[in-house]
Amino acid sequence: MEYNDKVMDHFANPRNVGKMDNPDATATEGSYTCGDLVTFYLKINDSSQIIEDVKFLSYGCASNIATASVTSEMAKGKTVEDAKKLTWKEITDELNGLPGSKIHCSVLAVDTLKSAIKDYEIKKGLRVADPFTKDTIFQELKKVIYPPASEDICTLKMVKYVYFDDGIATIIVDLPNYDQYKEHIFEDIKETLSRYPEVKEVKVQ
Ligand code: FES
Question: What pTM value is reported for the model?
Fold first, then answer.
């Protein structure tokens, strides 16, 4: 796999790596594509809402480490509201690009940062945990990347139908049978949604 010099630099010399003592917020998320994990820790100034320190631990591949490293750098010094606007595209751009099959690593990094921010907001009473709805399914489907296009399946308009009722999530994806990524995408969707206790069954067609 070909990584550019900047990815290799962040992999070999990750910034802000390590565990944080007494963080204001933390989150661990896993990639359903590969099983890798990343943890973010945040120190947030309650009055200014500025993220004063970020640390991360990675349990994954080279781009898991590199994307978490860049995400930590980009989040540090930002307000909570600005950090919430970071996207995986900005992370990969900052790294001068990633191979298509590794885009999901940047999705994992930025999503884990946002989960840690959510943890902070819930702890401070600034929000309540979201109820599970059809919108939750769309949000999760936006994390499923179609590797040849390095884009998520919603942006690529591959998602044709989403329905959620009585614990059953039904998703119709427009992918031909001969597409070599079809099974991989279907598995990714099932695993992503199955972690929600509200979802008893996932049907993908
Ligand atoms: Fe697992 Fe990169 S996060 S392959």
Answer: 0.74
